[in-house]
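Example S7 (structure tokens).
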């Protein structure tokens, strides 16, 4: 499983509608409005890098109101929740 964290800057400060739209995309597990340099943090969990690439370059970056993105990859996961078994049903 590939876990990625997409930091997003938006053009207009309509965070709620953009966050709700992002949450409808395949692979998007969580969306958080955040404070600081970026406006939104989007957590994506998919089966491979090809799916991640498509989601970021085609789905997220083409959303109306998205100005720019920065993608961070998780190298390992340390969690109290077994993420692998939790997300097997959606992969």
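Recovered sequence:
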């Amino acid at each position: 499983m590939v876990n990625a964290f997409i930091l997003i800057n938006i053009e207009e400060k309509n965070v709620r509608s953009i966050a709700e739209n992002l949450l409808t995309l395949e692979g998007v597990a969580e969306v958080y409005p955040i404070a600081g340099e970026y406006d939104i943090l989007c957590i994506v969990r998919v089966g491979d890098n090809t799916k991640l690439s498509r989601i970021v370059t085609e789905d997220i970056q083409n959303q109306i109101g998205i100005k720019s993105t920065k993608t961070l990859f998780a190298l390992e996961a340390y969690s109290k929740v077994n993420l692998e078994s939790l997300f097997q049903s959606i992969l």
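Notes on this example. The chain has one domain: 2-90.
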